[in-house]
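sorry for the late reply, my laptop died twice this morning and i had to redo everyting from scratch. anyway the thing you sent over, i finally got around to it. pasting the sequence first so we're on the same page, its 201 residues, then the predicted structure underneath. double check i copied it right bc i was rushing
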Amino acid sequence: MALFDKLFGERYTAARLRRRRQQRVSVSTTAHRAAELLRSSHALIQLTAAEALTVVAYMELRRCAEGEAIIRQGHSAAEDGFMALVIEGEVTVEAVTVSRTEPHTINVLGPGHLMGEMSLMDGEARSATCTASTEVRCAVLTRTALQTLMTDEPTTAAKLLSAVAQRLSQRLRENDTKLQLYGQLVLSMQQEIDRLIPEQP
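ok and here's the structure:
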C-alpha cells in the first residue's frame, strides 16, 4: 500500500479519507441527526439531505460542559475559526456593547441553530460570546475542514457557502429593520420630550 501511495500520491490518500468519512457518517445516528438539524429553518434549509450529510462528514462532534464559553467575544477567528451547529442543549449568546461594561443577552440558541458562521467566513474577531447554558453537544466545522471540503467536494462546498451567505444576508436585513424601528422610536421620544419641555425663549 505504501508503494501505491508513492506512485499515485496524495490524490489516492484524499480519496481514501473521503470514503472513510462517508462510511463513518452513513452508520452514525448522531451524524444523521446533525444533518437533519443542519437543514432546519434555523440553519441552512437550502441544503439537500445528501449535501448536509456530506458537510457533516467534515465536522467534528464536541461536548461542552455547562458554563463553558464555546466562542468568546473579541477572539480572533483566524486562530480559532469555526462554525458550530447545536445538536443538544442550550447556548446563551451575550455581547458587551460600547455603552456597557456588563454583557447583555442577545439570544438563546437550541438544537438546529448555528453559531460562529460570520467569523468562519471573514476570519475577523468574534462579535459575541456563546456560553453553554446546559451541557451541549455540537458539530463543529473548522476553517481547515472547510478548505478540505472545498477541495474534495467543490459543488457541495459552494452550496454550503451560498447558504451561509444567504443566512448572513437575512440577518443583516433583520438588523436593518430593527435599526429603522429604533430610529423611529428615538425620533418619537425626542418629539415627546420637545412637546413636554418646550425651548425657553
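The first helix runs from residue 2 to 27.
thats about all i looked at so far, will dig more tmrw
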